[in-house]
Amino acid sequence: MTARLKTGAALLFLTITYYLAELIVGNRWHDANPYSWSANMISDLGVPECFGDMAQYGASTPRYICSPWHAWMSAEFVLLGVLVLAAALLLTPLLPKTLAGRSIPYLALVNCLGIVLVGTFPGSAGEVPGGNHLRAVLHPTGAYLELLSGLAIMIIIARVYRTHRAYTAVTVVLIIVTVVGMITSLAPDHLGLGAGTAERLAIDPFVVWRILTGIVVFVALPRLYRPAG
């Protein structure tokens, strides 16, 4: 059982590859039109078309899109979804046999589905006249599934492990940042922060939380789990 839980913790930590993929793929953009961490959306990294300046299409969020290594980012999204689901299934022994505890694997499944949709159906198509309708629908659907299920998972875990005060406190802070990011993303002009910054405020807390949780579980496993008998 200990090996199973350590594997689950390691898989959670491996979701750090998401940041590595962002850095690598983002740095492959052309020097004349580099990827903007504040203006560009995260999913712009996985868009297969070289749209160029989105202002020409009247996009609500003007920015430049041309990602030479788009396939790597899309593959990372799919890998990320698989890692999240596999880790959740491996770590179920740490969850209480309550309704809240039993809901975590199902929420992880929804989260996995959302992330896989984001990677399989790259974004921005809906901002281009005549763009792929299926992508225009399924990409944002996947993004919302990922965001809301991730937020729900953090809320439930903060409640379940509330006696672990330091870990819970950090989780609560990340929950608050997520909500602030969601509000900022919906606010006019994203409160001047840029679409990319607002999106990262909403999405990144769950990414950070997964990595942190992987470390915490791996280090504190003897106190978190005591086999029966």
Summarize the topology.
Blueprint: H1 2-13, H2 17-26, E1 52-53, E2 64-65, H3 70-90, H4 99-120, H5 133-160, H6 165-186, H7 195-224
Antiparallel strand pairs: 1-2
Helix pairs in contact: 1-3, 1-7, 2-3, 3-4, 4-5, 5-6, 5-7, 6-7
Give the strand order of the largest sheet, numbering strands 1, 2, ... along the chain: 1-2
Structural class computed from helices and strand pairing:
mainly alpha
**Succession of helices and strands:** HHEEHHHHH
The helical percent reads: 55-70%
Output the radius of gyration: 18 Å
User: In DSSP terms, counting alpha (H) and pi (I) runs of 4 or more, how many helices?
Assistant: 7
How many domains make up the 3D coordinates? 1
Which quaternary structure do these chains form? single chain
End-to-end Cα distance: 13 Å
Which ranges are low-confidence, i.e. pLDDT below 50, for 5 or more consecutive residues? Answer: none
Please report which band the strand proportion falls in: under 5%, 5-15%, 15-25%, 25-35%, 35-45% or over 45%: under 5%
- Compute the number of strand runs: 2
Shape assignment: elongated
Mean pLDDT: 91
Q: Main β-sheet, in a few words?
A: 2 strands, antiparallel
